[in-house]
Amino acid sequence: MKPAPFEWHAPATLDAALALKAAHGEEARFLAGGQSLVPAMNFRVAQPAVLVDLNRVAGLDSILASADGSLRIGAMVRNARLEADATARATHPILAEALAEVAHPQIRNRGTIGGNLSHADPASEMPAVMLALGARFVLRSARGVREVEAAAFFVAPLTTALEPDEMLAEILLPALPPRTGSAFLEVARRRGDYAMMGCAAVVTLDAAGRCAAARLAFCSAGPTPVLAPRAADALVGSAVDEAAIAAAAAMAKEEVDPMGSVQASPAYQRHLAGVLAARALRLAKARAA
Ligand SMILES: Cc1cc2nc3c(=O)[nH]c(=O)nc-3n(C[C@H](O)[C@H](O)[C@H](O)COP(=O)(O)OP(=O)(O)OC[C@H]3O[C@@H](n4cnc5c(N)ncnc54)[C@H](O)[C@@H]3O)c2cc1C
């Protein structure tokens, strides 16, 4: 298959890229790793008139850690680089754990974290991880800059809060408090496939070993990545023992809204949500301790 004709621009600066997007609006798409956009163009599911290629834009590919352990990740950081980054592995180990489940190494070598999040596939692992980490996204346009919470960024399948002239420029991850553990687990038919269900858990313990805070998020669990706040809040104050984990997992099963696929019925996906929530919480608690 061949794509429909398009204009290709390869700006060298952020300002030039944003000016092109402002000039062409919805007619234009940013090209990052091309791992989702190019196949869609080849099948003519996407027919942008203009591509604004971000691969030569300087300044979008840094991974910066602050002394407090918070992280700023440029949108053009390749998934494979983020997976291997020693600092990110130390500050937010769930990134590497989940990225290992994203497609195959060849696709992670080209695909970017910004492209993955902007594509907003509800089956994608990283959007759920961003919800579990309480990430904020920096959106830039020729008009200025704004920040949105990850939870407000994902609006519907393949649809985000980005305006037609905006770019996802950076991902901001708050530092994880002391005694915090995290885990990402998924069930997929084959290694590298999109998950039938995936779960990201983050658990913070207090000095006495009780749960001070928890976050649970799921992929392939609804039209967007899904947070399970009732399940997570129910853990707070508990010892995160088997009874508390079972209660939280049962609540999480009710909070997800899976749509089903050729591989799994909604009922089976809901069952997986409960099983994965329990396993991920156990693992996150053990890592926190
Ligand atoms: C065989 C195969 C298996 C895959 N399996 C998985 C999987 O298991 N899990 C998973 O999560 N993904 C999977 N993917 C998708 C892969 O992770 C893609 O790399 C990713 O979704 C898109 O990233 P990209 O950098 O290639 O973006 P592109 O394909 O270049 O762009 C994707 C979309 O985002 C827009 N965009 C890109 N960057 C920005 C930006 N900075 N600001 C605003 N908009 C932007 C583009 O205009 C386009 O609409 C798979 C892909 C393939 C081909």
Structure characterization notes:
The protein contains 12 helices and 14 strands. With 289 residues, it is an alpha+beta fold. The protein has 3 domains: 7-53, 2-Layer Sandwich (Uridine Diphospho-n-acetylenolpyruvylglucosamine Reductase, domain 2); 63-173, Uridine Diphospho-n-acetylenolpyruvylglucosamine Reductase, domain 3 (2-Layer Sandwich); 180-288, Enolase-like, domain 1, CATH 3.30.390.50. The protein has a 5-stranded antiparallel sheet with strand order 4-5-10-6-7. The chain has a 4-stranded antiparallel sheet with strand order 11-12-13-14, sandwiched between helices. The protein has a 3-stranded parallel sheet with strand order 1-3-2, with helices on one face. The longest helix has 23 residues, at 266-288. The mean pLDDT is 97. Flavin-adenine dinucleotide is lined by residues 29-37, 39, 75, 102-103, 107, 111-112, 114-116, 118-119, 124-126, 162, 167-168, 194.
Radius of gyration: 19 Å
CATH topology of the largest domain: Uridine Diphospho-n-acetylenolpyruvylglucosamine Reductase, domain 3
Structural class call reads alpha+beta
Shape: globular
Largest sheet: 5 strands, antiparallel
> What percentage of amino acids are in beta strands?
15-25%
Sequence of strands across the biggest β-sheet: 4-5-10-6-7
Number of strands: 14
Per CATH, which architecture of the largest domain? 2-Layer Sandwich
Spans of at least 5 consecutive residues with low confidence: none
Q: What is the terminal separation in angstroms?
A: 53 Å
Total helical elements: 12
Q: What is the H/E string?
A: EHEHEEEHHHHHHEEHEEEEEEEHHH
